[in-house]
UniProtKB/TrEMBL annotation:
Signal peptide: none annotated. This is Amidohydrolase family protein. InterPro entries: Amidohydro_3, Metal_Hydrolase, Metallo-hydrolase_Enzymes. Residues 5-106 form the Amidohydrolase domain. It comes from the Bacteria. It comes from Oceanimonas pelagia. Gene3D superfamilies: Metal-dependent hydrolases (3.20.20.140). One of its GO terms (molecular function) is hydrolase activity, acting on carbon-nitrogen (but not peptide) bonds, in cyclic amidines.
Length: 128
């Protein structure tokens, strides 16, 4: 199940679906298009929008949004080599945040990004 957590539409019952063993992810379906000028492909922003839509306030609730934009997406796509373990793809984003909830409610812009173990962005600056 996937959601964009739209402001003006109903959303899937995230917690009930997860409790039933259904994989749930979040994503962007458009980036500043005819339907919404707010899309920018930033998954941390999508997590924030999920938190607002689902009325999540506590850190443990916001952790669900983080799961949806990370592991949830990998689960829905059937990625076997996802995560922070030996043998995984080494795709990761490093950010300056003390806890996951802080990264969601106040997404830092200066991110360091690795794709397949190669540094592609350093503190918000694209290297390619």
């Amino acid at each position: 199940m996937a959601t964009t957590a739209p402001a003006n539409r109903a959303v899937p019952p995230y917690e009930k679906l997860r409790a039933a063993g259904i994989r749930v992810t979040a994503g962007n379906d458009g980036i500043r298009d005819t339907w919404s000028p707010y899309g920018n492909a930033d998954m941390l922003q999508r997590a924030m929008l999920m938190g607002l839509k689902y009325r999540w306030r506590q850190d443990r609730e916001l952790d669900q949004a983080l799961h949806a934009i990370t592991r949830g997406g990998a689960e829905v796509m059937g990625l076997a080599d996802y995560g922070l373990a030996e043998g995984c793809q080494a795709d990761l984003v490093l950010l300056d945040a003390r806890v996951p909830a802080e990264a969601i409610v106040e997404p830092p812009r200066d991110r360091t990004v690795f794709k397949a173990g190669i540094l592609v962005a350093d503190r918000g600056e694209c290297l390619f």
